[in-house]
Amino acid sequence: MQRPIVLTFLRCANLSLLVLYPVAWFAPLMRAGVLPLFSLNEISVVTGLQSLWGSDVFLALVVTVFALFAPYLKTILLALLHFDLLSARTLPAIHVMGKLAMADIFLIAVYITLSKGIGIGRIETAWGLYLFTVLILASILISWLSEQLQKRPKD
């Protein structure tokens, strides 16, 4: 493909993340319940953060940075790069933001694994977890393609 077509695709894909991340933050990541016979409560990134702020402020701050700020800031930086408003020398910093953003998927996976291992309650994954995971992986792919595009000579 030609460079302008690829760049246009990357711009559109990256800008769509700016809209889809907030959707993923409010989408149900999982449904949790204490006993199998009772209904399950839906947990999203936002509701999880709300309960964390009430119990463990430090952990809530860490998760807020990883789940909200890091992926969104990375997406904004990539958009600036795509529109030539940011130097290509910032790509290493953008990669660091991407690694921070991936940490939240790990935290969610640990939470689900621990909850299922205890055996007290019931946890079911919901569509928001898949959406959030796809968005993080799409962001990683967009970053990688952007880096490859920056390495190629301009047409």
From TrEMBL:
Q: Where are the transmembrane segments?
A: 12-38, 58-81, 93-114, 126-145
Name the keywords, alphabetized: Membrane, Transmembrane, Transmembrane helix
Pfam hit, one: PqiA
- Keyword match Zinc: no
Q: Give a yes or no for keyword Secreted in this entry.
A: no
InterPro entries listed in its UniProt record: PqiA-like
Q: What is this protein called?
A: Paraquat-inducible protein A
Identify the species of origin.
Ascidiaceihabitans donghaensis
Q: What is the lineage of its organism?
A: Bacteria, Pseudomonadati, Pseudomonadota, Alphaproteobacteria, Rhodobacterales
